[in-house]
Design the sequence.
């Protein structure tokens, strides 16, 4: 018995002394960092996870109705391009209405959703960057490509954050402690410096063009386009011009001959596509839903069937129309512009009242709330428009700037204007060309989440939205309010250029 007691004591002491080691033994049944992130296949799966939050960010949360938090809410409805069609019988949309009415609250669920999904991308990208060099790769070029994708997507998310929120925490390493979640705010200048550094590295790492098996992934052209956009925001037009001309001279991109065909799911990742968010109809959870968030509610079953072509139509009852073309946008289309019918349609709600709606992303699909459309983030047309603007802002000849809009460039079969069915822009002064380019961007990129950021970038946001808000308040029915309803008194009271940091995040970060 005495020997047994001594033996048990020795074993107990050994167990106590090794307790820390036992606690750090990797699980054999759960994936941890010690087991995962070890092979090329692991890293390929890890970089796929960096893309995943974008599907929610652009299509909207599946927990809310039909894209209620989608990126277009803050990019288009938060501008003079698009409105909501008020449904007094459905009041679960106040946060989206606040975005459109320029009521900036830290508690807004839409701005919070954008903030959180971007940091989900950043978190996943940081994990890839922290582990890629330690993994075993059969192909070293694959390692470089994966790191380039992570850098590009991290930069893109920080670019989105800094434009909408200003100063934000700059996370560049995986967060492993609770304290690590509460970083101080970095200045706007610091965030932009990191974005440029990430993109500069990504350009050297990424392939010029994705192979057929990798369609939808970011490429060198994607990183260059984002970088050029950054330089345009910073008004560094000469450097932006250099980067944009590299994209054009690469020969990798060309305008499609037909504008509406650009957005047809049959032409996903086409010659004009530089970066688009990938969706796929079916039962695997990858379908898009944003077209349903743009219909007027309520809508009769037969109207749903006619518009969508689905085999299982049902009436749309609970919801409110978002991204409805504003009267202001519809008024600036030139007569004969083919882009109008490609972007804007008309339909009736269940009460028989006719409304315009955004039809740009509506194409026939098989099942209700299960569409096949991708979301365009950057297209080659925007590269050409940026290039025209960069040249004009440097005071170079207006003919040189307008050549990128009026004439076919490189491999493109048509110019931007020819494709729209319009004649060349004939402006002759720098100011006239500036206005013409802004107008062309507004129409060419309508409903693609560009308008608000363009207004801020060009210094027009306060002037344009103040006047727009006055029109909304003066004539509510023209802006889709039922008789007797109007915008809240607080609407358009202050045209803030950035959103407050989310209140939900301030609970965890005392630096907010």
Sequence:
């Amino acid at each position: 018995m005495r020997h047994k007691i001594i033996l048990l004591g020795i074993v107990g002491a050994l167990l106590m002394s090794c307790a820390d080691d036992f606690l750090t033994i990797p699980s054999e049944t759960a994936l941890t960092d010690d087991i995962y992130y070890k092979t090329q296949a692991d890293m390929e799966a890890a970089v796929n996870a960096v893309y995943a939050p974008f599907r929610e960010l652009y299509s909207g949360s599946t927990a809310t109705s039909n894209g209620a938090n989608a990126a277009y809410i803050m990019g288009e409805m938060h501008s003079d391009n698009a409105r909501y069609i008020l449904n007094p019988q459905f009041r679960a949309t106040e946060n989206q209405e606040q975005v459109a009415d320029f009521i900036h609250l830290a508690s807004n669920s839409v701005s919070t959703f954008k903030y959180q999904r971007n940091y989900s991308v950043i978190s996943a990208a940081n994990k890839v960057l922290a582990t890629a060099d330690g993994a075993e790769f059969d192909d070293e070029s694959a390692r470089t490509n994966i790191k380039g994708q992570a850098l590009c997507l991290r930069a893109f998310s920080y670019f989105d954050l800094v434009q909408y929120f200003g100063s934000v925490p700059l996370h560049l390493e995986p967060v492993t402690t609770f304290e690590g979640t509460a970083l101080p705010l970095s200045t706007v200048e610091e965030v932009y410096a990191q974005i440029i550094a990430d993109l500069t590295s990504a350009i050297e790492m990424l392939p010029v063009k994705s192979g057929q098996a990798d369609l939808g992934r970011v490429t060198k052209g994607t990183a260059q386009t984002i970088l050029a956009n950054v330089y345009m925001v910073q008004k560094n037009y000469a450097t932006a011009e250099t980067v944009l001309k590299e994209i054009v001279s690469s020969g990798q991109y060309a305008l499609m001959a037909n504008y509406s065909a650009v957005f047809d799911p049959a032409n996903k990742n086409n010659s004009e596509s530089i970066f688009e968010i990938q969706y796929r109809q079916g039962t695997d959870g990858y379908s898009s839903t944003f077209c349903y968030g743009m219909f007027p509610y309520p809508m009769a079953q037969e109207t749903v069937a006619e518009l969508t072509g689905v085999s299982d139509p049902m009436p749309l009852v609970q919801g409110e129309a978002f991204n409805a073309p504003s009267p202001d946008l519809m008024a600036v289309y030139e007569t004969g512009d083919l882009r109008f019918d490609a972007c804007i349609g008309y339909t009736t709600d269940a009460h028989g009242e006719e409304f315009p709606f955004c039809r740009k992303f509506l194409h026939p699909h098989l099942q209700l709330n299960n569409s096949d459309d991708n979301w365009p983030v950057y297209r080659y047309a925007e590269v050409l428009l940026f290039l025209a603007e960069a040249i004009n802002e440097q005071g170079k000849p207006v003919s040189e700037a307008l050549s990128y809009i009026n004439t076919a460039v490189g491999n493109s079969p048509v110019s931007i204007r020819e494709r729209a069915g319009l004649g060349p822009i004939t402006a002759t002064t720098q100011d006239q060309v500036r206005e013409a380019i802004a107008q062309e961007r507004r129409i060419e990129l309508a409903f693609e989440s560009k308008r608000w950021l363009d207004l801020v970038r060009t210094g027009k946001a306060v002037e344009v939205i103040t006047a727009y808000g006055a029109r909304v308040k003066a004539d509510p029915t023209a802006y889709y309010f039922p008789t007797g309803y109007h915008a809240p008194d607080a609407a358009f009271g202050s045209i803030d250029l950035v959103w407050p940091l989310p209140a939900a995040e301030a609970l965890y970060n005392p630096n907010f």
Summary: Strands lie at 82-85, 168-169, 185-186, 273-277, 321-325, 344-348, 354-358, 375-379.
